[in-house]
Design goal:
The chain has 9 helices and 11 strands. By secondary structure, the chain is α/β, with parallel strands linked by helices.
Length: about 280
């Protein structure tokens, strides 16, 4: 028997849960399906920084040369394991084409609007729903030990200020006053007060609990096994826990989304990326 709801969301990470929250708040009937359990992917394994200061896109002039250097460093922030993968190389070609100042400025403006709006909504949601996730609005420090590296980074605060974000220049003494753990060789850097942080696992857990209270049906261990379409529309989704249908279907599977999109004849230019996190 097919289980039906108004909106079917594929993926119980932070994006899927956020969609479910606002849809349920608007009175919609929502079901979420996930191949594992709530927030088990990138929503759990990330550093928990909320950073509008990351609005500048990675694609900018000079990045292609830098990326080629990083490809031989396994701990690089943009490491790509060399391999034969036509989809990856198509993505890299599109990335290279965007490494110019015109595209950089356009992407910067778009990302800044999205990130600042998301930052505002996130704070409102956490406070309004009383989600306990150690949310702190104390900015983010970017520090340097090398004067040449600091000087070469001057494009970054200029870019942020151009889209209305506050950036505070700090010398080494001011930085150590803010963060006593910094070593003496730190000579300068920046504070971006609009940035915040929280515990991502606690936030996802709290948000999942709230959407459950709002009547959203969350079905873990319901990985998509097949999709049936008619006349260009998704009719049903088959999973390990049964068959589901919805008037609208939201794809919120993160890096897995392109794999499922292929079944729908869609090409999503998404590649998985490596992140960093420390669990103390």
């Amino acid at each position: 028997m097919t289980q039906r709801s108004e909106v079917l969301i594929l993926g119980a990470g932070v994006i899927g849960l956020s969609c479910a929250y606002f849809l349920a708040k608007a009175g919609r009937d929502v079901t979420i399906l996930d191949q594992a359990y709530i927030g088990s992917g990138a929503s759990w394994g990330n550093c928990g920084t909320i950073t509008p200061s990351h609005a500048p896109p990675l694609a900018k002039p000079g990045m292609v040369r830098q990326a080629l250097t990083w490809m031989v460093q396994s701990d690089a922030p943009f490491y790509i394991r060399p391999r034969f993968d036509p989809v990856l190389w198509r993505w890299l070609w599109q990335f290279a084409r965007r490494c110019n100042w015109a595209d950089f400025e356009q992407a910067l403006a778009g990302k800044a609007r999205l990130l600042l709006q998301s930052r505002r909504l996130l704070a409102e949601l956490i406070r309004g729903e009383g989600i306990e996730c150690e949310f702190q609005e104390r900015g983010h420090l970017t520090v340097f030990r090398d004067p040449a590296a600091l000087a070469a980074f001057d494009w970054w605060p200029r870019a942020l200020r151009s889209v209305g974000m506050q950036v505070v220049d700090l010398d080494g003494a001011a930085l150590r006053a803010r963060e006593p753990c910094l070593r003496p060789e730190v000579i300068g850097g920046f504070d971006t007060p609009m940035d915040a942080e929280f515990k991502p696992d606690a936030y996802v857990s709290g948000l999942a609990h709230r959407v459950d209270e709002m009547g959203v049906s969350i079905r873990p261990e319901s990985g998509v096994q097949g999709i049936r379409c008619e006349n260009g529309r998704i009719v049903s989704v088959t999973t390990a826990s049964g068959e589901y249908a919805g008037d609208q279907v939201i794809l919120a599977l993160g890096a897995w989304s392109p794999l499922l999109a292929r079944q729908l004849g869609l090409r999503l230019p998404v590649q998985p990326g490596k992140g960093y996190s420390i669990t103390g």
